[in-house]
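Re-run with default settings, no changes from the original entry. Doing this only to confirm the output is reproducible before filing.
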Amino acid sequence: MSDVPLAERDLTALVPEWLDWNQAAERLGVTPGKVRTMIRDHELAAAVPVPGGGPKVPADFIQDGVVVKGLPGLLTLLHDHRFDDRECIAWLFTDDDLPGRPIDALRENRGSEVKRRAQVLEY
C-alpha cells in the first residue's frame, strides 16, 4: 500500500483520461446541469486534477453511455466513510488492496469485492 494519503495522491498520474462536465454530459446524453446534480448526489465524482483547472470527471466512470454499474452506491459508501470526491477518485484508481484497480473491477462487473473492501475502510 502507498504511504501517501489519498487526498495527496497525484490524480493526473492515476487517472488516464478526464472529461469536463460538457464532455461527460455528452457521453451520458444529459445536460451539464444534470452532471452537476449527479456529482452532488454522489452518482459521479469530480475533482480538479490540475491546480488552476476546472473540475473534471474521470472518463472511466462512464461506460457505454451510462454511469458504471455500482459506482453510485460505492461513492455513497465512501462518502459515508468521510471521503471527499478527490479521495474517492484516488481510491478507485489505486491498486492497493485488490488485484487491479477498483474502477477496473467495477467496469468488469466485479463490484461485490470492491464494495466489501470499501465497507471495511477506515479513514
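The chain has a mean pLDDT of 92. Residues 32 and 92 are 23 Å apart (CA to CA).
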